[in-house]
Amino acid sequence: MTVASAPGKVILFGEHAVVYGRPAIAVPVTQVQATVEVQEEGRGIRVVAQDLDEVYQVERLPPSHPFRLIVTKTLKRLEIEELPDLTISIRSSIPMARGLGSGAAVSAAMVQALTSHLGGELTLEEISALVYEADVFYHGTPSGIDNTVIVYQKPVYFVKGHEPYTFAVKRPFWLAIADSGVVSPTRIAVGDVRLAWQRDKGRYERLFDAIGTIADQARWAIEEGELEQLGLLMDENQRLLRQIDVSSPELEALIVAARRAGAKGAKLSGAGRGGNMIAIVEEETKGAVVDALKQAGAVAVIVTQVR
Ligand code: PMV
């Protein structure tokens, strides 16, 4: 039996603008994990999704299904022509469709578990590329940030089409990640932003430029340990996300609550319209911020340290 795990992720800065070539920053969230076990059992390849109580026979899934895609592409990359008999069991504590990268984490753990089980070797770059291909199913036109941060398992400064840049955090800091409880599929939010961009490219390009500048400044602030500045940059990024119309009343209520309870900065994270918000908190303020977020309607709050 072979086991592999991959963490969740959150985007700190630059969502949406990253789809249009601007930089973004994302970090792994190790408090939540997808774990995959591979063993020689059964006929053909079976995928058991433990949390969903579902069993899939890979050969019978439609060719574009992410489980089938990831299995067949991994086998091809490993130059294995004949389907082995395997059972792939998946368990995940990453909430689904909440911007925490659950799909990419499951794919990453699957590629890694399959590769080591079958005695192959793939570079992180190769694994990340395979995970990206499966992410197309969930996201439509993913920027590639999810697969990168989840496979490299480090804070990443990401620009589409460029080598990912992983960087060091000078002063570790705490993040509260609060789930608004509103399900918001990424591909819908991304599609709406694309329609708005098509209608008024000049305005949207300027907004994306401003978001890109914030992501650059945020990388500097993280590398230099300037946490006050980082908080202000989050607020500023949120102001721009509101202008591209991806915030929501639920997210705004959480953001106000976090700031009032002492967070240094707060914004939505990921596709928006629902899903998660994040706030920079300190050792002394994190308890109060978590309480305030729950009172303001958060259905779940994760506190993670970025290091
Ligand atoms: O909600 P998430 O974490 O899947 O993030 C979506 C981030 C976008 O920038 C809106 C899309 C993308 O592919 O980067």
What is the topological layout?
Blueprint: E1 2-13, E2 24-39, E3 45-49, E4 54-57, H1 66-77, E5 86-92, H2 102-117, H3 124-139, H4 145-152, E6 156-158, E7 165-166, E8 173-179, H5 186-199, H6 201-224, H7 227-243, H8 249-260, E9 265-269, E10 276-281, H9 286-295, E11 300-306
Parallel strand pairs: 3-5
Antiparallel strand pairs: 1-2, 2-5, 2-6, 3-4, 6-7, 8-10, 8-11, 9-10
The structure holds (3R)-3-hydroxy-3-methyl-5-(phosphonooxy)pentanoic acid.
Give a verbal description of the structure.
With 307 residues, this protein is α+β, with helices and mostly antiparallel strands. The protein contains 9 helices and 11 strands. It has helices at 66-77, 102-117, 124-139, 145-152, 186-199, 201-224, 227-243, 249-260, 286-295, and strands at residues 2-13, 24-39, 45-49, 54-57, 86-92, 156-158, 165-166, 173-179, 265-269, 276-281, 300-306. Strands 1, 2, 3, 4, 5, 6 and 7 form a 7-stranded mixed β-sheet that branches. Strands 9-10-8-11 form a 4-stranded antiparallel β-sheet. Helix 1 runs parallel beside helix 2 (102-117) and helix 8 (249-260) runs antiparallel to helix 9. It is globular. The model has no long low-confidence stretch (mean pLDDT 95). The structure holds (3R)-3-hydroxy-3-methyl-5-(phosphonooxy)pentanoic acid. (3R)-3-hydroxy-3-methyl-5-(phosphonooxy)pentanoic acid binds next to helix 5.
> Could you list the spans in which at least 5 consecutive residues all have pLDDT below 50?
none
- Overall strand count: 11
Order of helices and strands: EEEEHEHHHEEEHHHHEEHE
- Percent range for β-strand residues: 15-25%
List all distinct small molecules, including ions and cofactors, that are bound in this structure: (3R)-3-hydroxy-3-methyl-5-(phosphonooxy)pentanoic acid
Structural class: alpha+beta
Radius of gyration: 19 Å
> What is the molecular shape?
globular
Name the helicity range: 40-55%
Query: What's the mean pLDDT score?
Result: 95
Largest sheet: 7 strands, mixed
Termini gap? 32 Å
